[in-house]
Amino acid sequence: MSWATGKGADGNGDLADLVGATRGAVGYVELSYALDRKLAVAAVENHAGRFVTPSSTTAAVAAQDLAGLSAVNDFQVSPAATTAPDAYPITTYTFLVVFQRQFDVAKGTALLRLLRYVTGEGQASATGLHYAPLPRPCASSSSPSSGCSPAPTARRCPPLTRAEGPRPARTPLPGYPAEPLK
Q1: Which of 79, 104, 113, 172 is 20 to 30 Å from 27 by CA-CA measure?
Q2: Per-residue tens of pLDDT for the chain, all 182 residues
């Protein structure tokens, strides 16, 4: 990408490296990249009028504040809308888009195991990686067993999506299994 002034970089890692190597540089990268490279971070004013620095804790406060609303609204409410006084205001969920039915059973099974891990026991590792664990209402509604498991029709999932009741029958694409992996 060409910029009128300054320098650009590809992705969070390259941008964090460039900011770290350039005196006086300012950039916007994912928290884990900034902390891993020991970059200074800015305190940002939130809706409560407080200046809050980014951390897995202040991101968790934002996510927890709107967790119930997020889970029942298919995650169309961003934690950035929080009014909690200790919440970092530039916080959001990370979404995964997966196919409900997988062509390759072995890869689909491995994907399902990964998704169960990241929405289950893997949540315990989130803070150490500079992420906020999913709040309970979100974690339970984003598990693979809630209805978004490895379809020819992709669905937005945070890491997956909540169950929305019975689904209409679909005609699978040629080469795709008729039923989702369990």
Answers
A1: 79
A2: 666 777 888 899 999 999 999 999 999 899 999 999 999 999 999 999 999 999 999 998 988 887 766 656 666 666 778 889 999 988 887 777 888 888 888 888 898 899 888 888 988 998 888 888 888 767 665 555 444 333 333 333 344 333 333 333 344 444 444 455 55
Structural domain range at position 16: 1-41
| In-domain check, residue 21 | yes
Number of H helices, E strands in the chain: 6, 4
H helical segments located in 11-135: 11-21, 31-36, 56-65, 67-72, 105-119
Q: Is residue 153 part of a domain?
A: no
Query: Is 159 part of a structural domain of the chain?
Result: no
Neighbours of 180 (CB within 10 A): 18
| Angstrom distance (rounded) from CA 19 to CA 53 | 18
The residues, any chain, with a CB within 8 Å of residue 166's CB and separated by 6 or more, are none
Domain-embedded: residue 86: no
